[in-house]
Amino acid sequence: MAVYTQVSAEELAALLARYEGVGALVSAKGIAEGVENSNYLVDTSNARFILTLYEKRVDAADLPFFIALLDHLAGAGAPVPRAIADRQGMQIQTVAGRPACLIEFLPGVSVSRPTAVQAAAAGRALGTMHAALADFTGDRANSLGIDGWHALAARCGDDLDAIRPGLRRIVADELAWLDTHWPRDLPRSVVHADLFPDNVLMLGDAVSGVIDFYFACTEIRAWDLAVTHAAWCFDNDGAGYHPALGAALVGGYRGSFGLTDAERAAFPALARGACLRFLLTRAWDWLNTPADALVTRKDPIAFLRRLEFYAQTPDLLA
Ligand SMILES: Nc1ncnc2c1ncn2[C@@H]1O[C@H](COP(=O)(O)OP(=O)(O)OP(=O)(O)O)[C@@H](O)[C@H]1O
Ligand SMILES: N[C@@H](CCO)C(=O)O
Question: If you measure from the C-alpha of residue 130 to the centroid of ligand 1, how many angstroms do you get, rounded to a whole number?
Fold first, then answer.
């Protein structure tokens, strides 16, 4: 359960009192989903909100970028939650000693087994966001880009072999391959970078919300599609690829934004990079999450299996 920091009812009531018109506290519950931040579902006499307290991987210095990004996307009509401003115009607060935001609640549920129609809707939502970001001037370096993967692999070191014998060698070989094949001249943009099904809220077959922008950064734009493809088009354990989901997702994206020949040609390399990113962050968490933490660790090997698929399918979007 992702509640690292407890917030008392008194602290919460004092926080809500800073805002105009949000109403009085009725109830607050810790949200079990998620691994990165502490999230509470807050009901007031007027409405429902999410309270997020930023933990380990979110740098407070990046919060103004994330908030400006959400404001920009919401202003363009994308279904993303804004951070609410208090009477002084402040969107970032301190709660229980952590940086925190009170955030609009969006309806919908995240699907665990997407259909092709839902994958197409996710692809369209991603393309629509990329279109809306064409005139966004914010910029944030990707600390989990190709240079970051090298650093993370080095920090995991020999311990990778404790997850699976031989994993350290596989990761080193993959990094070497990516160093040679990584596309350096594709269009860049601010991207979501973590558009897993659990970060897309759906009502039926329609996307009602896109959340969790805390890895958003400036990257190769088509890498965002590769991340989304790796996240949406396989069984959870990475064992089975579902071509119908892949075709629907990419079709939805191409229909709403487009994909150049160069981006299509580079797609397998981008997807391998996406897999390595999640393999490594999951491996790091696997090795460093205390046994008594109330968090379910995610399986790094599920992204090794995806990586193997992309490596064996170099003509995926040809
Ligand atoms: N604006 C929102 N509207 C509705 N529900 C939300 C909103 N933000 C978060 N949630 C709910 O809270 C859960 C956790 O949020 P989120 O995915 O942002 O957490 P996280 O710890 O950053 O997770 P992750 O492990 O995916 O990085 C979501 O799965 C969703 O159920
Ligand atoms: N979406 C990521 C967690 C956030 O980086 C994963 O499933 O590994």
Answer: 21
